[in-house]
Specification:
alpha/beta; 304 residues; 3-stranded antiparallel β-sheet
């Protein structure tokens, strides 16, 4: 019998539990494990999902411990301190580093072959920290990056043009946060230029960049769309798709940027990040990318 595919989610908060439910609905794996410091919460989520099995299929779901990471193909980390209203992602940094140190240490005790998929904010720095801590090959430590930002960008462009966002091809790269940048030079619909004026483009980008703040202000947290983004990354890995997704990975002379995790278009398959796409960007976009990288490097240096 073929080995059963197992996804472990560490952190059963709003993002973790919604991601688990999304993966379950879409039948992405054979086994799904929830781990949380509040084990009772993880037990409740697993029980709740198991009660829906007559409507779904044969996946096995349970609340586990770090020992269950041993057979995991993908380990998604969504744990960490919650982002408060008005708090930037980078303000979370020092509160989350200590949490991640403990989590990665426990995972490493039982697993050396899986893929770490980081979703906790600030995701680029937490991904870099996890890679450093694990000493795993860089392709197997992935951040959710700007995949969600790019989806928001595509949605807002499509909304302006009254076009299905799935037909809009556009990228946000850099930090998943305030210094991210839009690649208007590559944005297109069926190869045609996106016909928005400067004011409309600025409005679309600002609403993309600040989307999380708007949602947090309205309901306290974001979790539906990021769960779908994490599901998309997991699917590319487990099905060995070779999909191009804007995930966060370690850059090595990427338009002159090195030694920092940032979200850029990457080929994602069973090995993790197989390749970083060498996409053309303008001189202005390159300058903004360097600013984003420099910001994160400064923050990384402050915790080393």
């Amino acid at each position: 019998m073929a080995k059963k595919t197992r996804v472990v989610i560490i952190g059963a908060g709003a993002v973790g539990s919604t991601t688990a439910y999304t993966l379950l609905l879409r039948n992405r794996m054979d086994e799904l494990v929830l781990i949380d410091a509040n084990h009772k919460k993880a037990v409740g989520d697993a029980l709740d999902m198991n009660h829906g099995m007559p409507f779904l299929g044969g996946a096995k779901v349970w609340a586990g411990t770090y020992e269950d990471c041993r057979e995991a193909d993908v380990i998604i980390i969504t744990a960490g301190a919650a982002q408060r209203e008005g708090e930037t992602r980078v303000d979370l940094l020092k509160r989350n580093v200590a949490i991640f140190d403990s989590i990665v240490t426990e995972v490493l005790k039982v697993n050396s072959h899986g893929i770490l998929l980081i979703a906790s904010n600030p995701v680029d720095i937490m991904s870099y920290f996890s890679w450093k801590k694990s000493q795993w090959p860089v392709n197997r430590v992935i951040g959710s990056g700007t995949l969600l930002d790019s989806a928001r960008f595509r949605y807002l462009i499509g909304d302006k043009l009254d076009i299905d966002p799935r037909s809009v091809h556009a990228h946000i790269i850099g930090e998943h946060g305030d210094s991210e940048l839009p690649l208007w030079s590559l944005a297109n619909v069926a190869g045609a230029e996106v016909k928005l004026n400067d004011a409309e483009r600025e409005e679309v980008f600002v609403n993309t960049r600040d989307a999380a703040y708007q949602i947090i202000s309205a309901k306290g947290a974001t979790y539906y769309a990021i769960a779908l983004a994490l599901d998309r990354i997991c699917t590319a890995i487990l099905r060995d798709e070779g999909a191009v997704l804007n995930v966060s990975t370690l850059l090595n002379d990427y338009h002159g940027v090195s030694d920092v995790y940032l979200g850029v278009p990457c080929v994602v398959d069973r090995s993790g990040v197989r390749e970083v796409m060498d996409i053309p960007i303008t001189a202005e976009e390159k300058e903004l990318l360097h600013r984003s990288a420099d910001k994160l490097k400064g923050l990384i240096e402050s915790i080393q």
